[in-house]
Amino acid sequence: MKLIKLFIQSLLLAASFIISNSLVQAQPVKDTLFINNSGEYQINRHIFYYKTTFNKTPGYVFDSLTANDFAAIYPKKYLTAGTTDNYYWLLFTVKNNLPDDATFYFELNNPGINIAKVYKKSVNGFQLVGEAGDHLPFGTRPLRYYDLVFPLQLDAGETATIIASLDNTGDNVDCLPQLYDANTFNEKAERYYIVIGAITGIMLTAFILNLFLGITLRDRLHLLYALYVISMLFEMYILQGIDLQYIYPSHPALSDIFKYLSPAISLTLMAYVMQIFLNQTRNNSRLKIIVDLVKYFIIVLIPAFLVIYFYFPDARIIRGLYQQVFAITLALQLLLFLLSALEKVGQHYKPAYFYLAAIIYLWFGAIQYVITIMGGDTKEMIEKQPNDLQIGIITETIIVFLGIIYRYNLFKKENQSLLITIKNDKIKFTEQIISTQEAERKRIAEDLHDELGSNLAAIKLSVQKLPVDKNTYAPIINMLDETSTDVRNISHNLMPPEFSKTKLDELLNYYYRQLTNEGNINFEFHCIGYQQQFNKNNELMIYRIIMEITNNIIKHSGATESTIQLLFNKNHLEIIAEDDGKGFKEEESKGMGLKSIRSRIEYLDGNIIIDSNNSGTTIIIYLPYKNKL
Amino acid sequence: MNTPITIIIADDHSLFAEGLSTLLKDEKDMNVLAIVSNGRALIDAVRNQQPHLVLLDINMPLLNGLDAMKRIKQEYPKVKILMLSTYGEEHLIEAAKSNGANGYLLKNTNKEELLQVIRLIAAGQSSFPYRLSPVINSFEKDDNFLKKFNFSRREFQLLGFIKQGFTNAQIAEAVHLSIYTVETHRKNIMHKLNLNSPTALMKFILENGL
């Protein structure tokens, strides 16, 4: 009996409780958040949610549901459901214990929600605080902010129950409800704008620089990367909900479409950037074909989505499916990028280290994103602002940018060393031709001198032995002597005897003295500071230049006086050849003489100045020592 | 001249060597012992036949004349050596001298000169071609000055203008040269004198009473 009595009592008690409650406040869950101070309030301890497959009216949720229908978010701070077709309702009761009337800010921390509506039930009645979301015109938001924020007006001592409906069907439902007073909210918003501004600045700098580099260097990679940066910046704006709704506040559909398209575009561009940056080809990478396949699949996803969006506007399930397919593809593609970078690192391709560093963090963020989309629970993804995906996008952009600069410098260095090699090969080749030619000349000179010279001498001896009067053969002896001199001069011009063992100054000294003795021109020769500053091959080249100039003076100038000077200075040789002849004009002088002088000087990296008029010619040649030793 | 001068001819040009040999055979005071065509054969021949004199060519196979001479002079310092070469270059004559040659003749020499030099050397004297005379300067009175500082005629001429205070442009016009050429000469004058300012150059000109 006692038990029955107790049962009835408790029933009555419960009934009176429910009746009194519904009469006074109609509060499905008895839990109140008291606002006693300023700052952020721990709303997560007092907020509850309810999910339903059909959209309900707030009145139904408010009046017909009991505490059993609601679940607490606490001990978590956030609600996450992945891509879903359900509607979610949030519920909390708040009492303003402050002495004044005040506005509090209720923020959802998910700008991507299609439609969020917030209602307030207080003693004054039941009213819509505001509605906001991707599917609604931006201009109608209660607060024009990137995120969905609802200002709640509470008089001093007022108690209000707030319910919020979240419609993000066919998309990823997650939210982190927060409540703060006006000051705290404003400070937070300000911090946010600074961060977004800084990131925008960095990305735009990278964009402009690469656009410039792409145009000036005509390198496809820079242009692609510039496009990629812009697409990534746009994607980041979309993730933050600060995209097209700001530009077209009355066309919410635009930002809704791009929410789906932007990541696909970014990922496609990223694939192209990666493949060029890592120089991934069929020949050097086995992953190339798989990356290509995934890339083309993503490209196909873009029109596929448009078809879904415009032809099946009510097929929310398909849209959800699209989201999930895309998320898995994204994870796969990023994994392929990571493997591609690893493959290239294995091939010791240096820029790959940059790419590896860039992709690892992005991958970490992207995996969290994928898990969230698939309905998994990733605390960081929702609580962290900015989250790891966003940080990953920015770090990836910056590191790849540094990598592109590094790659450019690397290529430049390789190009330079290649050019140097080509130049060296050319010099070697020229040297080879010259040394072959000189060897040939040497051989001919020696043969002429030794064989012909000796034979002429033998003939002379034989003639002198003839049993006739000395005067009879005197003309023959003269002819023989002249021929011997000619042979000797020809041979000498081809190659002075023992050139490699003879000092240039001694050789020339002797040569000019002999010329003065034998010819009509008085040659003066000065050589100062000679210490064999050039190697023998180059010295031979210099000798040839001097011979050519001397021959010109003898044959063409008509001079009587000539001065040849070799001045070996600290870093260069200066050759000065002067004559008092009739001068010449270079364009009038035919023949190979001057041409061969010029080409030899060019080979020695020197230069020549010819100062000629009808009272004489001065030739000044400058030949540096460096590089040729 | 009781005993004839014994001679070995070393030359790889057989035509010349034979010609030489027949020429010497006519001389009663000369006796050609052998003709060899390379340095090694020569050393063997000298060792075996101990000649008074060797007529030696420079360019020969296996061992050239200069090197062969060095070794002969070490072993048999008394053997006289007369170089017979087609080359008249001073440095080769110097090289022959320093390797111990007693004389040096060009191959296209006269018969008389050749015979005379052979006899001279066999008698213990030496005979080398005269050095070529140095270049005759037109500024003979300033010869020493020119030589001392290695000035060219042109540079000496310019020094005169510089002394009179001519600018480079004025000098260029006066001597029909370009300004660049005059500048180069002026720079080289300074360089040769180891001076580095126009004032120092002027001081030098005045001090040397040019």
The computed structural class of chain B is alpha/beta
Biggest chain pair contact, residues each? A-B, 55 and 45 residues
Largest sheet, spatial ordering of strands of chain B: 2-1-3-4-5
Mind summarizing the main beta sheet of chain B?
Answer: 5 strands, parallel
Low-confidence parts of chain B: 133-141
Instruction: Give the rounded overall mean pLDDT of chain A.
Output: 84
How helical, in percent, are the residues of chain B? 40-55%
Tally of distinct domains of chain B: 2
Query: Beta fraction of the residues of chain B?
Result: 5-15%
Secondary structure tally, helices of chain A: 15
CATH topology-level name of the largest domain in chain B: Rossmann fold
* Overall 3D form of chain A: rod-shaped
The number of distinct helices of chain B, counting runs of at least 4 residues, comes to 10
Distance between the termini of chain B: 62 Å
| Alpha carbon gyration radius of chain B | 27 Å
Principal-axis shape of chain B equals: rod-shaped
The fraction of residues in strands of chain A falls at 15-25%
Tally of separate domains of chain A: 3
